[in-house]
């Protein structure tokens, strides 16, 4: 009778583990150390890439700060030159002219006390009349018509949504350093919604609140505006850019003008048309700096406001 041969039983094994099992303990330890080193190298590489990205970001911010400092130096030099010119003109006007003595010293007669007293009284009466006339004329003068009447402030857009009744309009919630954000309705259809969220802007804050298709708007965003090269007559296709405040500006910072001091109106009267009269003198210069009659939009101690690419263009 033939013997029964049972086929041999083969165990399934993982090639990598069986290979490691055959290695010397020292070799296994060396391989594990190699893997640990590779992991550490990968972590270092990731950290280095992150550091390079942050360094690039800092370089861009530093370049912008240097540009702001350069612009401030130019502005300061211009102001100093204007001061010197004004001082020189004033000194010419007040330079003493040659006078001729009416009588030789020692020959004047002794003044009469009564006449002197009467003369002083008459001079005092004439002076009082002149002062009253000047004060009355000052009251009758028209209020100043310049950019100092505008309440311009830095704001941060903290919320954006489409207008429920007009797809071309945005409704924005803007932080102006006040207890609560203001609602602002703007026609900024050329700027994507994502680019509005969280950005800083220059706003006119003392306009009278108005209802825009059912939503009350309490301020106005200022932008640089240039006509489209293909259609100069169509304002709807104009190129529009936000006026960018200095990098270290914060919501609530006032925008001032060196040559035009003064406190802004509490609210601009539509009857006086202050905004309409000042608007033609608002534009960007050859460097993109926002100006009023050549004087820059300045956040005191922080820098100038500018349009990123629009030069010699209007501001609306």
Automatic annotation (TrEMBL):
<feature type="region of interest" description="Disordered">
    <location>
        <begin position="87"/>
        <end position="145"/>
    </location>
</feature>
<dbReference type="GO" id="GO:0000049">
    <property type="term" value="F:tRNA binding"/>
</dbReference>
<feature type="region of interest" description="Disordered">
    <location>
        <begin position="1"/>
        <end position="21"/>
    </location>
</feature>
<feature type="compositionally biased region" description="Polar residues">
    <location>
        <begin position="96"/>
        <end position="106"/>
    </location>
</feature>
<keyword id="KW-0694">RNA-binding</keyword>
<dbReference type="GO" id="GO:0006412">
    <property type="term" value="P:translation"/>
</dbReference>
<keyword id="KW-0820">tRNA-binding</keyword>
<dbReference type="InterPro" id="IPR012340">
    <property type="entry name" value="NA-bd_OB-fold"/>
</dbReference>
<protein>
    <submittedName>
        <fullName>Aminoacyl tRNA synthetase complex interacting multifunctional protein 1b</fullName>
    </submittedName>
</protein>
<dbReference type="Pfam" id="PF01588">
    <property type="entry name" value="tRNA_bind"/>
</dbReference>
<feature type="compositionally biased region" description="Basic residues">
    <location>
        <begin position="120"/>
        <end position="130"/>
    </location>
</feature>
<feature type="coiled-coil region">
    <location>
        <begin position="48"/>
        <end position="82"/>
    </location>
</feature>
<dbReference type="InterPro" id="IPR002547">
    <property type="entry name" value="tRNA-bd_dom"/>
</dbReference>
<keyword id="KW-0648">Protein biosynthesis</keyword>
<dbReference type="InterPro" id="IPR051270">
    <property type="entry name" value="Tyrosine-tRNA_ligase_regulator"/>
</dbReference>
<feature type="domain" description="TRNA-binding">
    <location>
        <begin position="146"/>
        <end position="256"/>
    </location>
</feature>
<keyword id="KW-0175">Coiled coil</keyword>
